[in-house]
């Protein structure tokens, strides 16, 4: 393998690993903040115990998100130096702004929160976790604005042999960024909701700490219900945005080879055959279905992959399968959340629901990872859509060095990930301290 | 003008990072030396508990600002120093998780693993930062495209190693003084004895590095051109001398403050000496990365300056608050509390 492929693998691995921990941080920080606020307002010890129990899981999860985040910043320079030089004027400044406005806030006040139980006043202590929650979510915004520049570059001019900032306001109001932000955030909140429900379900099945975990379950349920529906509705609009801005990605998501002038069908079962530029199986078609989904009209034209020369097409199978996985899980989650809502008053009498919720913990994770594969693999062969190819972005470095770092990073991440998940499992299973 | 301001800010960010994370890295490196019992080690870790993460963000910011203000410098620096940076990254990752994982399981083997993680994860960054910056001061073998010519093992030259030694020594002293200020009893006395005995060694190492800097680098040209600039070197040297007196008087916070001045001062001494070059090329000065050929557009630099002028003082303010709030001496009582390492 060459430096390009190794660097792509390393970036994919590092980013996907990082993103195992980020969504829970985004959602759980808010949930813990709400719990502590309830404690401060009512003085009810139950909420204090909830804050501590879920807060502990939050912190164990958080640390891996933090340490693996540094890798991502470093990698732009180490592995993608030509990219960094070409778009640093815009992309670099977004990362720097993220660090100054959000990351400092998050890290500083998390330290105060973890160590401040006996030092800060209850109100101040609750304020700290709110600052962490707000900062995490602001941090995500800057990162997604940066990513949106790669998906839909706006507000730049080509000058001095590179992309330079032309209009900062245009960059931060990039509609693609805000679509991605709402999509990612609601997905993360859904994940946190299902995490709360799943862990609570484990204890409710054992009929232990029933009041504690019924309250926790319901908090997670509210989050999951609202945001799993938001993510579906908004996801639909997001896909329409992708159709307008990155039509080749949409064609790959649907494995649509031929262009359709008057209505592209949507097949429920498709088996792509990338080599022969066709699908071996297309089954259960809805005439004009894809046109409707993409353009709100059954007869709207949709471009097929063959419209682009081969070197301009994204990898079809991976994009297609990931998109299907994301949509499949994304459709299932609101159904599960509605089921939970309907049985919210008979939780301990509905073991099937509880068992399902326990098993469902990994589902939002899979959907989110799949979603990022669609976003990033589907953008190929471009690192900045239409502006710079991934192959032109890679650093002039030696294969052996990248091979070494890829292997070392994979081993390190596997070990640390295993330890972290073990700790999450251990403390989730252990349950809260007795009242 | 903007380029110069950003160059100085860039240097200041690195200086703040080394000064703040320096004590964490020092304390971590000292775990096997000063942490005789589990209790000692827990106290040591708890002295940096609320801070290390916030301190590390200065590194992210220094990196981010390199990226934003001087994209070419970021590209060349990070790709040229690929393997050392990867090692640094692994070390910092291991440091972070070690601090967070160690106290989660009551088991001696478990603790031992993460103690070593914290130690190596602190010592290695100290060494690598020193090696990297000394090599930058001296010049990297960069060709006309900014591509590093040769193996990264070239970085392990005498001057690079002296830089590594300097950073380790600075952080060891910084960490030891931090412990004298933040602990009591036996552990404090051991840290104090170490600081006292280490002070002359630190003087020797700093002197050696300054002399080698004269021999190996062009950093001094800026100072010879404008001798008033020697103040930048004079301040840390004075701090180093005064530090010995304050250690003798057992005025620990004062001594730690002087150590902070020493680290900040020495970093700025190097940065001012580099100006206006960011990454000198040892092949030809024409290939060097400078603020002229690496800077971002005026628009980006202006927007970034506004962000920096608003947010960096704000960050300094709340991080100062954090340090004030948690500046107490760590005792057994604190080890019992929720959240303690």
Helix content of chain A: over 70%
**Strand order in the largest sheet of chain B:** 1-2
Strands of chain A, total number: 6
Low-confidence stretches of chain B: none
The H-and-E topology of chain A, N to C, reads as HHHHEEHHHHEEHHHHEEH
Strand tally of chain B: 2
Shape of chain B: globular
The oligomeric state is: heterodimer
Spatial shape of chain A: globular
SSE pattern of chain B, N- to C-terminal:
HHHHHHHHHHHHEEHHH
Largest sheet of chain A: 2 strands, antiparallel
Let me know the average pLDDT of chain A: 94
- The value of Rg of chain B in angstroms is 20 Å
Descriptive report:
The complex is a heterodimer of chains A (435) and B (341). Chain A has one domain (3-245, 311-430). Chain A is 71% helix and 7% strand. Chain A contains 13 helices and 6 strands. Chain B is mostly helical. Chain B has a two-stranded antiparallel ribbon with strand order 1-2. Chain B has helices spanning 2-29, 31-34, 38-48, 52-69, 71-80, 82-101, 108-138, 158-182, 185-216, 220-225, 231-248, 252-274, 291-294, 298-325, 332-335, and strands at residues 277-279, 289-290. The termini of chain B are far apart. The chains are: A mainly alpha (435), B mainly alpha (341).
Task: Give the SSE map.
The complex is a heterodimer of chains A (435) and B (341).
Chain A: H1 3-42, H2 45-78, H3 81-115, H4 122-151, E1 156-159, E2 162-165, H5 168-172, H6 175-205, H7 210-245, H8 247-254, E3 266-273, E4 278-286, H9 289-295, H10 316-342, H11 351-359, H12 362-377, E5 382-384, E6 388-389, H13 399-430
Chain B: H1 2-29, H2 31-34, H3 38-48, H4 52-69, H5 71-80, H6 82-101, H7 108-138, H8 158-182, H9 185-216, H10 220-225, H11 231-248, H12 252-274, E1 277-279, E2 289-290, H13 291-294, H14 298-325, H15 332-335
Antiparallel strand pairs in B: 1-2
Helix pairs in contact in B: 1-4, 1-7, 1-8, 1-12, 4-5, 6-7, 7-8, 8-9, 8-12, 9-11, 11-12
List keywords for this structure.
heterodimer, A: 435 residues, mainly alpha, two-stranded antiparallel sheet, two-stranded antiparallel ribbon, 13 helices, B: 341 residues, 77% helix
